[in-house]
From TrEMBL:
Entries under PANTHER family matching the protein: ABC TRANSPORTER ABCH.1, IMPORT ATP-BINDING PROTEIN
Stretches assigned to the ABC transporter domain: 21-259
PROSITE patterns: ABC_TRANSPORTER_1, ABC_TRANSPORTER_2
Name of this protein: Putative ABC transport system ATP-binding protein
Disordered: annotated segments: 241-272
Amino acid sequence: MWKKKEVIPDYITQNVSEDLIKLVDMVKIYDTGSIKVLGLKRVNLTIKRGEFVAIMGQSGSGKSTLMNILGCLDRPTMGHYFLDGIDTADLPSDDLSAIRNRKIGFVFQSFNLISRTSALKNVELPMTYAHISKKAREKRALELLERVGLGTRYEHMPNELSGGQRQRVAIARALANEPPLILADEPTGNLDSASSVEIMELFSKLHNEGATVVLVTHEEDIAAFTNRIIRFRDGNLVSDTPNIPISKREKEELEEPEEPEEPEYQSGDALC
Ligand SMILES: Nc1ncnc2c1ncn2[C@@H]1O[C@H](COP(=O)(O)OP(=O)(O)OP(=O)(O)O)[C@@H](O)[C@H]1O
Ligand SMILES: [Mg+2]
């Protein structure tokens, strides 16, 4: 966290790069003392502003390792991570915190809301760190809760909300400082299938409004909502394919002209 009245460098507050994420020969090794574990092996990856991407792979394949690096919660052991054109490798930790607060909104599997604190105050929190006035915070938090369909629930505590509603609050909180990047590690992992679809429809809506969303999922049905699916195996990026999102596919199917029905003939009908 930076200190009050400290000036945040312009390079952090400006959005400069068409390539929002660029990983160049990025390697992550965990050094546990006795052994070294290779978390990610030479990953090269570019994600452009406005993309909607799913990261998939078996347990232990490196998905969370990747998200921690993309979220500036951890640093690559080798190689480079450029976030919005900024090389994060040698940044002082104060600048990294400022980047996290301004450029990234996080959504977690377990929501990570502050209990005994209203939905409104939870959404206000990142704005408090960004030193936004109380009045402006409240106004924006209310707008965000409305945007995620919880405009009437702003006074509710997390334990008075369903799982899907809690995740909506968490998404509103992630949007608080208008970050160019939303990162979500298994955002539907704790939700039933109906709530999962609602949350994915909300991410699709945010994407259609211009947000860049990168999410981790184990489920093909969830990845089907995105525009691009990247798969990892044993720390290697093994496939990277475009995807027609399910909402668009359904729309196209609805718009397709129906096949004319075959006439039914009964035995004995004259065929001429
Ligand atoms: N802090 C750590 N210390 C040592 N090794 C780690 C650490 N975090 C992850 N690893 C190792 O790095 C590899 C990738 O782990 P990671 O957590 O990224 O997998 P994942 O794809 O997110 O798995 P899951 O689907 O189970 O969440 C694994 O071999 C894991 O054991
Ligand atoms: Mg993980």
